[in-house]
Amino acid sequence: MSSFFSTFRNTLTDIPTSILPYVYLSQISYEKALNLQKFLVRHRFENKNSSDLLLLLQHPPTYTTGRRNIGKTMDEEAHLRKLGAQYFETLRGGQTTFHGPGQLVGYPILNLKNFKLSVRCYVAAIEHVIINTCAAYGIVASTTKDTGVWVGNDKICAIGIQVQRFITSHGFALNCNTDLSWFDHIIPCGLEDKKMTSLTNEYIKEEKKAIITVEQVIPTLCQHFGYVFGRSLKPLKDINNESNRVLTQIIDEFLI
User: Fold this and answer.
1) Of 137, 167, 142, 168, whose CA–CA distance to 157 is shortest?
2) What domains can be seen in the chain, in order of their start residue?
3) How far apart are CA 243 and CA 226, in angstroms?
4) Ranges 72-86, 94-108, 170-184: which has the least confidence
5) Residue 214: partners with Cβ closer than 8 Å, 6 or more residues away
6) How far apart are CA 180 and CA 210, in angstroms?
7) β-sheet bridge partners, residue 195
8) Of 46, 108, 12, 106, nearest in space to 243 by CA
9) What mean pLDDT comes out for the span 60-84?
């Protein structure tokens, strides 16, 4: 266990044990998920007692880029749209990446004050969640000087976050059984000479025939997210209190 993780876990001893709701939205458009995040963040600003929430979902084929590239990617956008994918500029950190079916996307809407976390430590905590999730499938993953989680020299999970007044949005994208050929059209996260991989792709390398789906990974990821962040994760629909009923109503209205 790293010194960071030991220190981070110690900070959680002062936080009362509580439930962290999560919801799996299946596949929804990036635009709809982005607008939902914006609304939930604003809801947190206006309602101090609102719950933290972990959004889990998949996107149809979509390329996104981070805030440093806003207004600089017109040629790239035109090319990628011709492939049949959507394209969005965002305010998250990081550069261009791909989201699509077979990729487990997580958007934690958390108040970092509750966890006594700096932004850097929050990113490191997310990386530990992904590393532990990969380990559950016998895949040895790690971090490098570059953000994200890696298996050897191949990236298995991209991480790009936004924090406003201590409230997080955006998050991580873990490749489960993603069609990796979509990444061939970009320089993923701006890193030359790097390739992408997935949980299923790592199994194929070891001549294992199993396909690891998003739905299979969700319980494992939730278990490790809860362990790292010191919370017990439960489906939003199973938590019956006013705060979570409001969150359910907000999400239902966005999905109409």
Assistant:
1) 142
2) 3-251 (3.30.930.10)
3) 20
4) 72-86
5) 58, 102, 103, 104, 176, 177
6) 17
7) 154
8) 46
9) 78
187 burial class (0-12, 13-18, 19+ CB within 10 angstroms)?
A: middle
Q: Which two tokens mark 7?
A: 């220190």
Q: Any bridge partners for residue 173, and if so which? A: 105, 158
What confidence tier does 66 reach under pLDDT thresholds 50, 70, 90?
confident
pLDDT in tens, 3-19: 555 555 555 544 545 89
Three-class SS state of 87: strand
Burial (CB < 10 A; 0-12, 13-18, 19+), residue 47, is exposed
* One-letter amino acid of 245: R
Question: Are the beta carbons of 149 and 156 closer than 8 angstroms?
Answer: yes
DSSP state of 111: B
> What letter would DSSP give residue 94?
S
Contacts of 141 (CB under 8 A, 6+ apart): 130, 131, 134, 135, 149, 150, 151, 156, 157
CA distance 176 to 146: 21
Distance CA 242, CA 239 (A): 9
- SS3 of residue 247 by DSSP: helix
Indicate if 189 belongs to the active site.
yes
Instruction: Tell me whether residue 236 is exposed, middle or buried, using C-beta atoms within 10 angstroms of its C-beta: 0 to 12, 13 to 18, 19 or more.
Output: buried
Q: What is the pLDDT of residues 162-202, one digit of tens each?
A: 999 999 999 999 999 999 999 998 877 666 778 999 999 99
Phi, psi of 132 (to 5 degrees): -65, -35
Q: Which of 134, 157, 189, 222 is catalytic?
A: 189
Q: Is residue 129 over pLDDT 80?
A: yes
Q: How far apart are CA 167 and CA 48, in angstroms?
A: 11
